[in-house]
Design goal:
Cofactor: pyridoxal 5'-phosphate
Structural class: alpha/beta
CATH architecture of the largest domain: 3-Layer(aba) Sandwich
Distance between the termini: 41 Å
Family: Belongs to the TrpB family.
Catalytic activity: (1S,2R)-1-C-(indol-3-yl)glycerol 3-phosphate + L-serine = D-glyceraldehyde 3-phosphate + L-tryptophan + H2O
Strand content: 15-25%
Shape: globular
GO molecular function, one term: tryptophan synthase activity
Protein name: Tryptophan synthase beta chain
Length: 401
């Protein structure tokens, strides 16, 4: 049975990870955030809540998701590669783990209206799915650019009964969708905001990481079943806001023997001006309610990010990841669009698994980093690539592998 752990994150009671985190919110939301904090800490100490959460993860999501030894990929890179198959979850990604926990918490608080933001659409689909299951009203904000490149997920959300609201400000991507969701929350403070990543004011970064911590909990148990040890040499995950990486890293953070690698989206290159590589190009600032690393323009405004991947197209990073990077606990590698596409096509042709473009960035690390033949490398395959087929067709139709 899975458990939600209380003690593995380096966070204090004000929501700070070192110098990053906190809750920078308008006064109108202060009471909402305080009530959320109280409800969340009460819920994770309640065996009934945890039991309901675990039951849905098992019977509805299909957990545990497999830990798959990618033998042909391992042979190609001459190391031992295991894929944590979050792409096999119901709805096709890791996002469902947090959506279940968050909507259960909303019902516990007596809420009936859910709002969410989405980039690649996976968090929107997951939230719409659980709202359908639990008879909750659901509004999802999504940027116009992302709607165009993630149309299948838009239609899935509508089929599930959610209202998808198009956001045309800025670049029409995840940052802009989040802005509008927060504006809606300010206008309708009785709504429950389900944030999809480890961003936002405290307790959201901690809460999302804990709901996703089932990923690393399972990795430890499954790796022991495979090779008789719980800890790999490396865990690799992509980071935009950072929810899948937080889940994959969670139970290894306190073990320095396990090296953690975060793959962020370099776009056309970290010096190109067309990037979402926040750790490489950002500086400290405040975005969406927390102090973290943020991409800024020369005049100090938040920069418009770019990535071929809708889910990594964000100009900030969760405060946990800012802390882990600044302290050297994680190594961050910026993977370009082309490197991610090449890695995705290799996995597809070698193992018969089409990854989400987000996950392809984590796979791209394999071409940037050498691993020893006896090392064990776990890559969190955070989602499946159905939603990205049109992008793959556009960029990879003449690729030879």
């Amino acid at each position: 049975m899975q458990h939600i752990y209380h003690h593995d994150l380096p966070v204090d009671d004000r929501g700070y990870y070192g110098r990053f985190g906190g809750a920078y919110i308008p006064e109108i939301l202060h009471r909402n955030v305080e009530l959320l904090k109280e409800a969340y800490y009460s819920a994770i100490d309640d065996p009934r809540f945890i039991g309901q959460f675990n039951l849905l993860l098992h019977d509805y999501v299909g957990r545990p998701s497999p830990l798959y030894k990618a033998r042909k990929l391992s042979e190609y890179y001459r190391t031992n590669i295991y894929l944590k198959r979050e792409d096999l979850n119901h709805t096709g990604a890791h996002k469902i783990n947090n959506a279940i926990g968050s909507v259960l918490l909303a019902k516990r608080m007596g809420k009936s209206s859910i709002i969410a933001e989405t980039g690649a659409g996976q968090h929107g689909v997951a939230t719409a799915t659980i709202c359908s299951l639990m008879d909750m009203n659901c509004i999802v904000y999504m940027g116009a650019t992302d709607i165009a490149r993630q149309q299948p997920n838009v239609e899935r959300m509508k089929m599930l009964g959610a209202e998808v609201r198009q956001v045309t400000s800025g670049n029409g991507t995840l940052k802009d969708a989040t802005n509008e969701a927060i504006n809606h929350w300010c206008r309708h403070p009785d709504s429950f905001y389900v944030i999809g990543s480890t961003v936002g004011p405290h307790p959201y970064p901690e809460m999302v990481a804990r709901f996703q911590s089932v990923i690393s909990e399972e990795i430890k148990k499954q790796l022991y079943e495979h090779i008789g040890r719980e800890n790999p040499d490396y865990v690799i995950a992509c980071i935009g806001g950072g929810s899948n990486a937080a889940g994959a890293f969670y139970h290894f953070i306190d073990n320095p023997e396990v090296k953690l690698i975060a793959a962020e989206a370099a776009g056309l290159g970290i010096d190109s001006g067309m990037t979402a590589a926040t750790i490489h190009t950002g500086s400290e600032g405040i975005i969406h309610g927390s102090r973290t690393m943020v991409m800024h323009t020369a005049d100090g405004q938040i920069a418009e990010p770019y990535s071929i991947s809708a889910g990594l197209d964000y100009p900030g990073i969760g405060p946990l990841h800012a802390h882990l990077a600044s302290t050297g606990r994680t190594e961050t590698i910026a993977v370009t669009d082309r490197e991610a596409l090449d890695a995705a096509m290799r996995l597809t042709r070698v193992e018969g698994i089409i990854p989400a473009l987000e996950s392809a960035h984590a796979l791209g690390v394999l071409d940037r980093r050498k691993f020893a033949p006896d090392e064990v490398v776990v890559i969190n395959l955070s989602g499946r690539g159905d939603k990205d087929i049109n992008t793959y067709l556009k960029y990879c139709d003449d690729a030879q592998y």
